[in-house]
Amino acid sequence: MRQGTPRLNSLDRSLDLLECIILDQGRRPAHEIGRQLNLKRATVYRIVKSLEEFGQLRACRRGHYVAGPRILHMLASVDPHHIHAEIARPLIRKLAKSVGHTVHLGVLEGDMTTYLVKEGRVDDGLLTREDMQLESYCSGIGKVLLAYLSEADRQRYLSGGPFVRLTQNTIVDPDALREHLQTVRASGYAIDDREIAPDLCCLAVPILQPDRSATLALSVSSIDQRKFEKSHDALLRKLTQTSEQIARRLWVETV
Q1: CATH architecture of the domain formed by 9-76
Q2: What pLDDT does residue 2 have?
């Protein structure tokens, strides 16, 4: 919340209680959850009854509540990827303008990398577009997200080959790819050195969640290899700064 904006304490209490009850999934009685929030039993009762009347909560047994039909309907209607994309887009557009290259936001869907956002020049010469999917093992965003998978999920992916060689630089040997992903995880960024297309270079970093996991990644891409390599350090610095800004917008800041 912006500094100086007055808070509605009653709304704060109601939202805190609603969130905790939904996450508890009916395991504990509402008054016990309220006690952890320093709410009086009578206050919990009034809030819960109001939320139940509005369909936000539903009683599952005496004193226990779960998410109500209106909450479930909202959740079913929400596309988290779309929300993440629209929150991140202004920062991505700003970065693309600053570096003069195309910037992508991507996510793993199954074994493929889906591009949620693409910002930059229309005539950038790149094959990518929003909602397009590319192979993960040879794209910058894909390699970053593979590197941040759990060991079991990463092994499952590596066992699912064969991996097709798209250019002479594509890493197709599972053992070599495993070692490469370990390097990506240790360094905190990935490079696509003309691995998915012979003239495409890409630098990618994870957008880290508070627990240091990553389900989204950010990349800068270009077909101007000489300019791209010359500005590698500056690009990585700006890319990392923007990924941190996006992370704060998505998971830390309140507006």
Answers
A1: Orthogonal Bundle (1.10)
A2: 46
